[in-house]
Specification:
By secondary structure, this protein is α+β, with helices and mostly antiparallel strands. 24% of the residues lie in helices and 27% in strands. The protein contains three helices and eight strands. The strands form three sheets. It has a four-stranded mixed beta sheet with strand order 5-8-6-7, covered by helices on one side. It has a two-stranded antiparallel ribbon with strand order 1-2. A hairpin with a 2-residue loop joins strand 1 (2-3) and strand 2. Helix 1 (66-83) packs parallel to helix 3 (108-119). The longest helix is centred in the middle third of the chain and has 18 residues, at 66-83.
């Protein structure tokens, strides 16, 4: 949540796994810890779902590069969540569709930095899929998000 004067800080109750109260990170015993995602998530609450979101800006333009599109896509998801009275720490699942897996892998460090700047250190269950193309020809990435706002 932010105001015209800047971001607003909220202190939230958290569970022992660092997730907000009502949300549980699922990590089977003995499995290696995933980096940048969760193996699974569970929650009780109100579901907020996005469609496939791409990096349009307010004027309907896409950034020319992959990283710029990722940045705008994540900001767009954050805006949709806010519209549904949800926050990035309510995210349960992200499904990423990219047109070039190698481009994603080359950009991983910067993508990770942008992700943390936008969503913080909250890593829901994620899937990454390479596709032949997206509906919008110039789009390099599309992301679907599912969030659960705890009761």
């Amino acid at each position: 949540m932010s105001t015209k004067n800047g971001p607003t800080l909220a202190v939230l109750p958290v569970g022992k796994d660092g997730a907000p109260a009502g949300i549980k990170v699922l990590q089977p015993s003995g499995w290696p810890m995933p980096k940048g995602y969760a193996n699974g998530m569970a929650a009780d609450g109100r579901i907020v779902v996005t469609g496939g979101v791409i990096g349009w800006d307010h004027e309907g333009h896409l950034a020319a590069d992959f990283v710029g599109q990722v940045r705008q896509t994540l900001q767009n998801i954050a805006a949709i969540l806010a519209e549904g009275d949800a926050r990035p720490d309510h995210l349960m699942r992200l499904t990423w569709y990219v047109v070039d897996m190698d481009e994603y892998l080359r950009s991983l460090k910067e993508v990770g930095r942008i992700y943390r700047e936008t969503f913080g250190a909250h890593y829901p269950a994620m899937a990454l899929v390479q596709v032949v193309r997206l509906v919008e020809k110039a789009a390099r990435v599309e992301i679907e998000a599912t969030a659960v706002v705890p009761r």
